[in-house]
Every structure is written in C-alpha cells, then in structure tokens.
Amino acid sequence: MKKGKNMLMKQKKKFAWWKEIRYFKPHKFDSPDKPGSGKLNMKRKFMFTLDMIRFMVGVPMHENSGFRTAAYNKKIKGNPNSAHLRGWGADIRARNSRIRFLIFEAAVKLGVRRIGIAKTFIHLDMDPSLPQEVLWPY
Ligand SMILES: [Zn+2]
Predict the structure, then answer these.
(1) Mapping DSSP to helix (H, G, I), strand (E, B) and coil, where does residue 38 land?
(2) How many Å lie between the centroid of ligand 1 and the Cα of residue 12?
C-alpha cells in the first residue's frame, strides 16, 4: 500500500512541470483514443518552447493535435514515424496568413527546426530523432 503511494508521488513529481506551462492544458494534447496521454507523453522541452511561442505571438493558440498513439496515428493516416508518436510535436491552428507568419517566426526564433505548413494549421516539432532544418507543405 505504502509503496503504491510513493510511486504515485514520484509520478506526480515527474509531471509537475506542467504547472509552469502558462497557456496550455495537458488534456488538450491527449491522443483522442487515450485520455491522459498528453500529460504523460508530451516532451517538456517542446511544451516550454510552445508556451514561449504562444507568449510571443500574443493571441490565443488552439492545438489541433498533440500526442498520438500508434493506433490513432494510423487511423488518421499520419506519417508512420511522426513526431506526434513521441510527444515531440503538435499541430497549431493557423487559418490566416498573419497568424501563420507570427507562429512561424516565433518558432524559428526559439529553435524549432521542423515545421510543416498546411492551409489551416502549422505542425511544429522538435523531435531530435528526425531530420533537422526542414520545412514542408501538406
Ligand atoms: Zn503534425
């Protein structure tokens, strides 16, 4: 019983950094098929960077997609080696040229080196296992 409680405390501590994220709630990064998966899987470094991007952009940002389980990624026909699978990336809604530019500019300034531009969103990721300094359309 006591051991279980300690484990729980440790788990809580491990994810305490989410409290320092000012603009995003962990559940928004859940894979839709797995509640709670955003908090457990999104990478700290990426989330702090995204939070700073949001601060620099200065207007609300909406996340379309964060963490994805393999099953969900497959279902939506995501890239089989997507950064979303490892919690290193997110798709941020960007429906006009101004917001698209502001997010892009802030991301590059803050060291994001993998960016995808779609008509309605921007994919940002910092996955160190994937090629760096790449920009792609959808
Ligand atoms: Zn994406």
Answers:
(1) helix
(2) 28
34 CA distance to ligand 1 middle (Å): 17
State in Å: Cα 119 to ligand 1 middle: 13
Q: Which residues contact 136 (CB under 8 A, 6 or more apart)?
A: 115, 116, 117
Query: 25-131: which CATH number, 1.10.10.60, 2.40.50.320, 3.40.50.620, 3.30.1380.10?
Result: 3.30.1380.10
Q: Is the pTM of this model over 0.90?
A: yes
CA 11 to ligand 1 centroid distance, Å:
27
6 alpha carbon to ligand 1 midpoint, in Å?
A: 36
**Which residues on adjacent β-strands are paired with residue 134?**
114
Tens digits of residue pLDDT in 33-74: 999 999 999 999 999 999 999 999 999 999 999 999 999 999
